[in-house]
Design a protein that fits this description.
- This protein has 367 residues and is α/β, with parallel strands linked by helices.
- Helix content is 34%, strand content 25%.
- Strand 9, helix 7 and strand 10 (234-237) form a beta-alpha-beta unit.
C-alpha cells in the first residue's frame, strides 16, 4: 500500500516530555496516518461473489473484502460493468458437473467492462479500453476481474455493457454449434430448441444472417415474441402438448437439417424424429440422462454431436470473434438482454435461470 510506505507515525524529537500542543499535534498526525492507511487498504479490496462449498444457489456469498487481483504476464485487469450468467455456471456451482474448480472460487466468464491495467507483454489493450471476455481467471461475479489477454476482445461502441456481457459464451457457442460443428449452409433449415435464451437468440440471429430457414421454440408469450424479433421465421410454444406435430407440419416431409438443442435430456428422442436425412442434432445443453433408440439415427444416417466451447482451439475462437464482430458492424447481431440483477442477488439469478417460467434474453449481473 503506497501510503503505508511513505507515511510514518511521528515521534518526539527529543527526550523531553511533549507539551499539550505537541501531544495534540502528534495525535492528529497519528489519526490522519491511520485514516490514510485504511483508505489505501480499502482501495485494494472489492466485492465478489464467492463459493466455499458446492450446493444450491444459497452457497453464492457476496463478500466485500476480497483483494483486487493483479494482472500477471499476458493478463489484463478489467473493471466489471456487467457479467453474464450462464446455465453452465449453475451446474458447476451445484457440484454436478465434470469440471469442478478449486474451492473457494468466484463464478463468471462473460465480463463486459473497461481495462483497468495490463500485465507484461500485453500490447493489444490499454487502460480505458472497452472490452468483453469469453473467460476469466479470477471470476466475473465481482467488481474487478483478471482475464488472459487472448480471451478478451474489443467491445464495439454500438453495444452497451449489458449487451457486451451477453456476447461471449452465447454467441461463440452458437457460432461453434451452427457453423464450425454443424456445418450449416445457406438454404438449410434449423430448429432452435429453447430459442429465447442467450445462446438461442444468438443462434437465431446468426442462422438468419447466414441464409437458413429458422424455426424456434419458447415457453412463454414474451419469449415467443422476442424470438420472432430476432430472426426466427416461425416459433412454437414448447409447453403445448402437440407442438412437435406442428413443427413436423411446418418442416414437411424433408424434416429439419439441424437442431440446436439446449435441453437434450428432455428433447433428444423427439429431435431424432424431426431430422432430415443426414440431419444433425447439436447438443449444447443437458441436465441429465435420456433414453433414445439408436435405430432412429440409422434410418436417416443422422448425427448427434456434442458442442463444447471449452475445447475450441485458439484459431476457432478467433474465427468466432471475427464472425461476431462482423455481425455487430453489419447490424444484424444485437444481443437481447433480459433480467439484470445486482451483484448481491447472484443467488436469485441462479435460481431464476434454472427454475424460471421461461427465458427472455440474457441474464446479467450488474456490479
Amino acid at each position: 500500500m503506497p501510503v503505508a510506505r511513505f507515511v510514518k507515525k511521528s515521534q518526539p524529537t527529543n527526550q523531553e516530555t511533549p507539551t499539550f500542543k505537541s501531544r495534540v499535534r502528534l495525535d492528529l498526525i497519528d489519526c490522519l496516518t491511520d485514516i490514510l492507511i485504511a483508505m489505501a487498504a480499502t482501495r485494494n479490496v472489492m466485492r465478489a461473489v464467492r463459493v466455499f462449498e458446492f450446493g444450491g444457489p444459497e452457497v453464492l456469498k457476496l463478500q466485500s473484502n476480497v483483494l483486487i487481483p493483479d494482472p500477471k504476464e499476458n493478463q489484463v485487469l478489467i473493471k466489471v460493468h456487467a457479467c453474464g450468467v450462464n446455465p453452465v455456471e449453475t451446474y458447476i456451482r451445484s457440484g454436478n458437473y465434470a469440471r469442478k474448480p478449486a474451492l473457494p472460487y468466484t463464478p463468471g466468464s462473460d465480463v463486459a467492462g473497461v481495462i483497468e491495467s495490463v500485465g507484461e507483454h500485453v500490447t493489444a489493450f490499454k487502460k480505458g479500453d472497452r472490452v468483453f471476455t469469453i473467460d476469466t481467471i479470477s471470476g466475473g461475479y465481482a467488481d474487478y476481474a483478471v482475464a488472459a489477454a487472448n480471451r478478451v476482445f474489443p467491445l464495439p461502441d454500438k453495444l452497451d455493457f449489458r449487451q457486451g456481457a451477453a456476447i461471449g459464451i452465447p454467441y461463440f457457442t452458437a457460432y461453434r454449434a451452427l457453423v464450425q460443428k454443424g456445418r450449416a449452409k445457406a438454404g438449410e433449415s434449423v430448429l432452435v430448441h429453447g430459442a429465447s435464451g442467450g445462446v438461442g437468440i444468438a443462434t437465431c440471429q446468426i442462422a438468419r444472417a447466414y441464409g437458413l430457414k429458422v424455426l424456434g421454440t419458447a415457453g412463454t408469450e414474451e419469449g415467443m415474441n422476442l424470438v420472432l424479433r430476432n430472426g426466427v421465421h416461425q416459433v412454437f410454444n414448447h409447453r403445448e402438448a402437440n407442438y412437435i406435430d406442428k413443427i413436423k407440419a411446418c418442416a414437411g416431409v424433408e424434416g429439419v437439417d439441424i437442431i440446436i438443442e439446449m435441453l437434450s435430456n428432455v428433447n433428444l428422442a423427439a429431435d431424432l424424429q424431426l431430422l432430415s436425412c443426414a440431419g444433425r442434432v447439436m447438443v449444447v445443453g443437458c441436465r441429465g440422462p435420456i433414453e433414445i433408440n439408436p435405430r432412429d439415427t440409422m434410418s436417416k444416417e443422422s448425427s448427434i454431436i456434442g458442442v463444447s466451447l471449452f475445447l475450441a482451439t485458439e484459431e476457432e475462437r478467433h474465427a468466432c470473434a471475427a464472425a461476431v464482430l462482423a455481425g455487430v458492424e453489419a447490424g444484424w447481431l444485437s444481443p437481447a438482454v433480459g433480467c439484470g440483477y445486482a451483484l448481491g442477488r447472484a443467488a436469485e439469478a441462479h435460481a431464476d435461470i434454472i427454475g424460471g417460467t421461461g427465458a427472455a434474453g440474457k441474464v446479467v449481473l450488474l456490479p
